[in-house]
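Box 3.1 A note on notation
Throughout this textbook, protein chains are presented in two layers. The first layer is the amino acid sequence; the second is a token string describing backbone geometry. Keep the layers aligned when reading.
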Amino acid sequence: MYKAVLDKCQFIRQLNEKIYLRSSLLESGNNLVIDKHLNIHDDKSLREIIEKAGFLLMDEGRAIELVEAVNNRTSKAIDSSAMFCLIMGVANHYCGENYDAIQYFSKAFKFKDELTVEWIDHLVYFDTITKYSLGLISDEKHTAAACVSLRGLIHP
């Protein structure tokens, strides 16, 4: 009983801290999420972490952790940057969640002005291979897109 009361009190304290000390989160559209263990997360912090370390985690074979973190610890408003959507699209692709990957890639295309040409090439490449693996595009479109995404690698 003591443990349950202590957990609830700590939860309320965390919640008050997030609301009162960081009230700018609520005004800017970043949502607070409370998970089943009463941990409080905000979308902005998690988005920044994923943008900085997402590809490193995937290189370590931990793409599933990214997907689970976003699915379990965020609101649906987190996908508001091109890099975040690109990283989550690639992570979902690596986890075999290709339809979710396509949704993230289409959102990344909406914000593609935030990306450099190299990252846009990566976006086109992963979007193309994901759609091709599902049979949504033809061989010709796949080949054409592959040539476009390799333009930065070909030296004159």
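The first helix runs from residue 2 to 21. The longest strand covers residues 32-34.
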